[in-house]
Amino acid sequence: MLDLNGTGLVMLEEDKELISMVHDFVLKEVRPRAAEHDRSGELDWESYNKAFEMGLICADLPAEYGGQGMSAVTSAWIREELMYGDAGFGLTCGTNNLGIKPVMLAGTEEQKRWCVEVLTSDKPGRDPRWPQKRSGFAAFALTEPDAGSDAGACRTTAVKTADGSEYILNGRKCFITNACYADFMCVVASIDRSLGYKGLTMFLVDAHLPGVSIGKHEDKMGIRQSATCDVIFEDVHIPASALVGKEGEGFKIAMKTLEHGRASIGAGCVGIMRAALEEAARYAQVRKTMGKPIWKNQGISFKLANMQIDIETSRAIGMKVAALVDAGSREAAELGPIAKCYCTDALNRVVTEAVQILGGYGYMRDYPVEKLMRDAKIFQIFEGTNEVQRMIIGNGVVAKYKVKE
Ligand SMILES: Cc1cc2nc3c(=O)[nH]c(=O)nc-3n(C[C@H](O)[C@H](O)[C@H](O)COP(=O)(O)OP(=O)(O)OC[C@H]3O[C@@H](n4cnc5c(N)ncnc54)[C@H](O)[C@@H]3O)c2cc1C
Description:
It contains eleven helices and ten strands.
């Protein structure tokens, strides 16, 4: 018989209780305050602290370094529920994974232990009254004003001192999630701009060092609980031991980091899609036109059906990537961009249909689907735009079916 256990296609028995607990938590805590935090653009700290206490932040950090050692599949189920609660909240909870991943992939033992300790130890800094103290957050800083999809155009520089003991970091990063809370950031900088991609190097930067400052806080369309800001580095002295991997490996490590991030992107999208379908399905039963509930029109019930199809197919492909990451398979790198495009496009179809099913009411702030549509758009843009993902997929297709000249 086919054994689907551990593949993510069926939930493991031992995960069911945990996921049901997370579901109850988001229903009781996250959702009731989601609209208020969407308006204010502030993180729901009360829920964040509870999520931390429940062990839902960075649950997949390896046990050998003091983490909980959950699989990518279990973490993906958690992500689905958190995003079902609120996309900006779920993103805030998940971004530490992106911030620490370069170190977990290519860092030294010492770097790994330090980072995990920072992210897992309970500190009062998590209280909003002390937002700038060490607070158990990490950020991943690749993007710059002139270097988004084109990471090779990175202008941030890291110049080694004559005695080799330090690098001096200068530059500006933009759109960095959680940067304003971060204790440390994995920063991509160039050691020699003439080398392009080959000069890019990854550094583990203590965000409390002199010369590191936070610039503009973005006022965004959606995921408004998630903080997005500029980070400025002005003559920041970082020790040579802050190098992650080797000089020139920054691009490779950054891409591998994003590849691992794809283990949860499908799950995040599914969580938001579920929230949208739930609203639309309920509305379609109570809204009557021409004497009957709107869902009794095939035009509407087919939309609900297509939304459910998008959810199931996205979960299947997203969980397959998570299972491949758990298995350490290289196939995760091939499937990741496909899952990213498929799930984020499906998400945008589903939220758009949810608004359509609610008609004029769907367009109003009083109904949650309007927010879901705003939250959904970013998923096609960040962590590598869908156009860039399609370039990668297209290159792979041509390489696979190469015609000999
Ligand atoms: C809310 C938010 C959070 C973010 N969080 C982070 C973070 O934590 N860390 C981080 O480092 N970055 C982060 N980013 C940055 C994000 O990853 C970039 O915005 C994204 O990679 C696109 O870069 P860009 O905005 O410079 O767009 P550009 O690269 O300028 O692209 C503009 C448009 O052109 C298209 N395009 C570009 N090149 C090509 C090409 N060769 N072929 C076809 N189409 C192309 C793109 O797909 C896009 O549609 C975040 C962004 C946002 C908005």
